[in-house]
Amino acid sequence: MFDPKTLRYDANGLIPAIAQEAATGEVLMMAWMNAASIEKTLASGRVTYWSRSRQEFWEKGATSGNQQVLVEMRLDCDRDCLLLQVEQSGPACHTGRRNCFYTAVRQGDEVEIAKPMT
Amino acid sequence: MFDPKTLRYDANGLIPAIAQEAATGEVLMMAWMNAASIEKTLASGRVTYWSRSRQEFWEKGATSGNQQVLVEMRLDCDRDCLLLQVEQSGPACHTGRRNCFYTAVRQGDEVEIAKPMT
């Protein structure tokens, strides 16, 4: 039986969660969860983070419509990081891009490698 | 010009870094970097984390031989998370598995979904 309380959280009770598009392997974003948001995510099947800035649950896409449906939750060997296999609707990034990692370091410079979805 | 000092670090001066196999999209592991380890990684082309437990640089594979060669470093929109495209030799996980996320939550139970490489 999986118990979210058995994970290793930081001093603020948070654990980093990586969202990866299940079908393609694209890494979409990284955000934070607490034990309660993990329980919500597993119960609802919709990925629910903990917003550090707003100090509240953040059900991804609840306002934007760009939901993340949970396909599978995985833990790492140290139980201090989560990998979420998801199905992302539309952009995962608040900038409108498909994923948040659209800035690459190439030859010492920052290069924008993806544009917002239209 | 990319300057590691412009990233957003936590209270300990650290930033999470996700390592992804460049050729396949497999998420291998997540560990932490500081500004100096980012500089070392970019200069050497070999991924160098900061070990929180040992409080020292941790050049991945320096002792095990299971190196991570950097293909490309990417930043997220908030500049507080890195995605490293790498070429991993052998297992990335200290358990001998290819990646650290070998435990899945399925029907409420923890299931081992990968075995150590032989």
From TrEMBL, chains A, B:
Zn(2+) binds at C77, C93, C100. It catalyses: 1-(5-phospho-beta-D-ribosyl)-ATP + H2O = 1-(5-phospho-beta-D-ribosyl)-5'-AMP + diphosphate + H(+); 1-(5-phospho-beta-D-ribosyl)-5'-AMP + H2O = 1-(5-phospho-beta-D-ribosyl)-5-[(5-phospho-beta-D-ribosylamino)methylideneamino]imidazole-4-carboxamide. Its main location: cytoplasm. Its cofactor is Mg(2+); Zn(2+). Mg(2+) binds at D76, D78, D80. Residues 29-102 form the Phosphoribosyl-AMP cyclohydrolase domain. Coiled coil: none annotated. InterPro entries: PRA-CH, PRib_AMP_CycHydrolase_dom, PRib_AMP_CycHydrolase_sf. Gene3D superfamilies: Phosphoribosyl-AMP cyclohydrolase. Keywords: Amino-acid biosynthesis, Cytoplasm, Histidine biosynthesis, Hydrolase, Magnesium, Metal-binding, Zinc. Its EC number is 3.5.4.19. It is found in: Cytoplasm. It comes from the Bacteria. GO terms for molecular function: magnesium ion binding; phosphoribosyl-AMP cyclohydrolase activity; phosphoribosyl-ATP diphosphatase activity; zinc ion binding. The keyword Hydrolase applies. Pfam families: PRA-CH. GO terms for cellular component: cytoplasm. GO terms for biological process: L-histidine biosynthetic process. Homodimer. In the C-terminal section; belongs to the PRA-PH family. Belongs to the PRA-CH family. This is Phosphoribosyl-AMP cyclohydrolase. The gene is hisI.
